[in-house]
Design a protein that fits this description.
Keywords: Membrane, Signal, Transmembrane, Transmembrane helix. It comes from Glaciecola petra. This is PEP-CTERM protein-sorting domain-containing protein. The structure is a single chain. This protein is of the alpha+beta class. It folds into 2 domains: 1-19 and 191-212; 22-188, Sandwich (Jelly Rolls). Helix content is 17%, strand content 42%. It has 2 helices and 15 strands. The chain is globular and about 35 Å long. It starts with a helix and ends with a helix.
């Protein structure tokens, strides 16, 4: 009977811990990434990537280094190789939190209207601002069918603003990302209070069963 109690307790704890949604991030900071400091400012920075086949996207994301929340709004955009802005969204502390492969950070993601991207070259970038000038660097990963260009891209420093990030640099920093199927395929996670009730109910059922 004790083993059943333990199993129920462990289940409740694990479910309560699942408060961060697992998203299909098209590009992410890898497990071996490290924190890198930059100078803040009103400029956009991000990553260039290439799609080998068409892909639908449904969210734009900004990295939260240190897992302590975003204190500023970060405008994030997606551009094609011609510099045309295809999608944009404001990411802030109220956006949905998605897990990263790196333990040093997590993603805040704002849902957008689903957009189909044909095979080609794109750039995703977000306004850096001054609340957190750190980025994750050194280990960038992507899903199958997506290749990442070396280095990172940005607008001019310190006041290039929210525009096409046409400048390229050698640092492997990652700041912005995007998702595919993250919202349409997501599963609602019960709140901790509901999970606690489920766990207590489980205890009651097991107790009742063994008293008979």
């Amino acid at each position: 009977m004790k083993s059943l109690y333990v199993k129920t307790l462990i289940t409740g704890i694990l479910l309560t811990a699942c408060s961060i949604v697992n998203a299909t991030l098209i590009l992410d900071a890898g497990a071996s990434s490290t924190s890198q400091n930059f100078s803040g400012g009103n400029y956009s920075a991000g990553t260039e990537f290439t799609l080998s086949t068409g892909l639908s996207i449904d969210g734009l994301a900004y990295i939260d280094v240190g897992n302590d929340g975003l204190l500023e709004n970060h405008e994030v955009g997606l551009w094609n190789s011609n510099g045309d802005l295809l999608a944009q969204a404001t990411v802030n502390n109220g956006s949905t939190i998605f897990a990263s492969q790196s333990s040093l950070g997590r993603w805040y993601v704002t849902q957008i209207n689903e957009l189909f991207l044909s095979a080609g070259i794109y750039r995703v970038a977000g306004i850096v601002g001054n609340e957190d000038v750190q980025a994750l660097s050194g280990d960038k990963v992507s899903i199958s069918g997506v290749s990442l260009s070396s280095g990172y891209v940005r607008t001019s420093f310190p006041s290039g603003g929210f525009n096409f990030p046409g400048l390229s640099f050698s640092s492997q920093a990652i700041r912005a990302s995007l998702t595919t199927g993250a919202f349409s395929n997501s599963i609602d996670v019960p709140t901790p209070s509901i999970l606690a009730l489920i766990t207590l109910a489980g205890f009651g059922l097991f107790s009742r069963r063994f008293k008979k």
